[in-house]
Design the sequence.
DNA sequence: ATCCATTCCTGTACGC
DNA sequence: TGCGTACAGGAATGGA
């Protein structure tokens, strides 16, 4: 379940194989994703040099020299696997391999997405910022412009729980269910606090912790979550364990509350998603 | 304008 | 063993 660090890792993994290369083969094997893969639009990318790759929120943007940009979202289970010429004997296509890309260096790149929540589209680069999914996005959490005052402004009038709020892409992008729980734990904020009632001091701490956890995860190459694969086809190598995520009933890694007394790390459901937290550390 | 539940989808884990 | 069911969740949607 890729969040910002995983998307960043995938983008960085694709970069050496795509930047400066051209696509000479495109096979849409199974078009059905969140929106159908636009095979005809993809064709205009054939034989055109790739200028650069970047990440915006959880989207990977691949810019081509003809002023077209390929936009990819990995959804829940999307992955790219890169096969250099020597590895292509290993390719075993399955029914969830939606797109096979071949570059002029004879590298094959396969997009697989079993749960089909991903998305692939092509837009004019100069119209990219008005492309609906990108247009509504809030600030990049790792940008220096993402500050406590920006977060505060984006939370004004918001009565939803802070956990739900920081997963809202209009408030801040890239924070998914896992890092939302982790960042709130590190900041000592209860996930159920009403968003516009979090104190300025705690908001500043939250901004710091969001940046910290995302950077740490990027540094470790993405998380080890069940559906995540890097472009070499391996699971992540995110070595540190999560503090609270998926650790219901375990002891809080920080405080000395006894499990017998407190029940340890709690799990609650907010907006249909699991939230994990320590009732003692987070107020 | 904001909020909330629902929808999409399928592999995995679990209980009986 | 096998079957059924609940669950995982990013983002869009529609109704309140």
Sequence:
């Amino acid at each position: 379940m890729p969040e910002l660090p995983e998307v960043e890792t995938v983008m960085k993994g694709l970069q050496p194989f795509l930047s400066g290369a051209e696509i000479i083969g495109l096979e849409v094997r199974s078009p059905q994703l969140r929106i159908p893969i636009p095979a005809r639009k993809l064709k205009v990318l054939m034989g055109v040099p790739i200028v650069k790759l970047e990440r915006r929120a959880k989207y990977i943007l691949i810019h081509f020299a003809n002023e077209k940009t390929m936009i990819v979202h990995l959804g829940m289970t999307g992955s790219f696997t890169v096969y250099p010429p020597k590895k292509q004997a290993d390719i075993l296509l399955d029914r969830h391999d939606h797109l096979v890309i071949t570059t002029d260096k004879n590298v094959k790149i396969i997009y697989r997405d079993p749960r089909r929540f991903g998305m692939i589209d092509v837009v004019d680069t100069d119209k990219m910022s008005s492309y609906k999914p990108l247009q509504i996005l809030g600030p990049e959490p790792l940008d220096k412009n993402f500050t406590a005052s920006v977060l505060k402004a984006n939370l004004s009038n918001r009565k939803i729980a802070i956990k739900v709020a920081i997963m809202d892409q209009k408030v801040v992008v890239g924070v998914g269910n896992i890092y939302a729980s982790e960042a709130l734990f590190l900041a000592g904020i209860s996930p159920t606090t009403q968003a516009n009632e979090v104190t300025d001091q705690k908001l500043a701490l939250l901004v710091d912790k969001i940046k910290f956890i995302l950077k740490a995860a990027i540094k470790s190459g993405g998380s080890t979550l069940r559906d995540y694969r890097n472009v070499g086809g391996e699971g992540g190598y995110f070595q540190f364990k999560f503090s609270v995520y998926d650790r219901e009933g375990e002891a809080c890694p920080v405080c000395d509350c006894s499990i017998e007394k407190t029940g340890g790390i709690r799990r609650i459901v907010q907006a249909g998603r699991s939230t994990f937290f320590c009732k003692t550390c987070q107020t």
